[in-house]
Amino acid sequence: MSAGGPRATAIPATGLRSRRVVTHAVLILGALVMIYPLLWMLSASFKEPDQIFTSDSLIPQDPVLTNYLQGWVGLGRPFSTYLLNSLLVCAAVVVGNVLSCSLAAYAFARMSFVGRKVLFGVMLATMMLPHHVTLIAQYAIFRDLGWVDTYLPLIVPKFLAVEAFFIFLMVQFIRGLPRELDDAARIDGCGQLQIYWRVVFPLLQPALVTTAIFSFIWTYNDFLTQLIYVSDPKLLTVPLALRTFLDASGQSQWGEMFAMSIVTLVPVLVVFVVFQRRIIDGIAHSGMK
């Protein structure tokens, strides 16, 4: 028995190791396929314009920084202007979503009022509604308010709890908090708003961080909404500024666009890398797996 024991355990260990090698090989291959467009764009940003679409190599023959230098000032203003515009809109959207969605989530999770379940179901149904369905109606409203060519259509709705996904995420999280905390605060004389602000809001941190990160990334990458409402050159955001490098009727500045696209990735990568663990924690604590 002693001779057969090690062999019996060695075979499963070898099979397990082989499966791990195959799994890692498949994951690495998938990662390379996913990251190839980014590597191609990074390579193109260091190539001369006549080599971008003629050379298949990811390694530039004669790397140049011309695309970065010309792209930074190529639109008449420093590209930092468009980065700051995008960061300004993103910051306002993050504040709006965090405050308004947490308030709405608290009402659905903790308060009793007529039609709560119906309204919660209607709110969930709006998540299945394509954004394009309401686009024309929203544009008509904002045009009548005189908000076109300002940031107001991008920011103000976020303070009215229009993001059903974030409300649902926070409702799930609040339902997991002990109601005894509310009762204790109520005994101390707190009203609903004080319970929300002093008890629930601090405990919502994982869900709030998740909301803030997704709000930032989705707003930073949003092109269609910003294209509809913003046309003033000094108000352009990053997606709109990148679009101006391309001209359907003339010569497009591909090299400058690829170079500035690499630059615009930096804020998103920094946010994601710094807060990626909190994203996982927030989704895990809310039960949305």
TrEMBL record:
<dbReference type="InterPro" id="IPR035906">
    <property type="entry name" value="MetI-like_sf"/>
</dbReference>
<keyword id="KW-1003">Cell membrane</keyword>
<feature type="transmembrane region" description="Helical">
    <location>
        <begin position="154"/>
        <end position="174"/>
    </location>
</feature>
<feature type="domain" description="ABC transmembrane type-1">
    <location>
        <begin position="83"/>
        <end position="275"/>
    </location>
</feature>
<dbReference type="Pfam" id="PF00528">
    <property type="entry name" value="BPD_transp_1"/>
</dbReference>
<keyword id="KW-0813">Transport</keyword>
<keyword id="KW-1133">Transmembrane helix</keyword>
<feature type="transmembrane region" description="Helical">
    <location>
        <begin position="21"/>
        <end position="42"/>
    </location>
</feature>
<feature type="transmembrane region" description="Helical">
    <location>
        <begin position="118"/>
        <end position="142"/>
    </location>
</feature>
<protein>
    <submittedName>
        <fullName>Binding-protein-dependent transport systems inner membrane component</fullName>
    </submittedName>
</protein>
<dbReference type="InterPro" id="IPR000515">
    <property type="entry name" value="MetI-like"/>
</dbReference>
<feature type="transmembrane region" description="Helical">
    <location>
        <begin position="257"/>
        <end position="275"/>
    </location>
</feature>
<keyword id="KW-0812">Transmembrane</keyword>
<feature type="transmembrane region" description="Helical">
    <location>
        <begin position="195"/>
        <end position="218"/>
    </location>
</feature>
<dbReference type="GO" id="GO:0005886">
    <property type="term" value="C:plasma membrane"/>
</dbReference>
<keyword id="KW-0472">Membrane</keyword>
<comment type="similarity">
    <text>Belongs to the binding-protein-dependent transport system permease family.</text>
</comment>
<feature type="transmembrane region" description="Helical">
    <location>
        <begin position="82"/>
        <end position="106"/>
    </location>
</feature>
<dbReference type="GO" id="GO:0055085">
    <property type="term" value="P:transmembrane transport"/>
</dbReference>
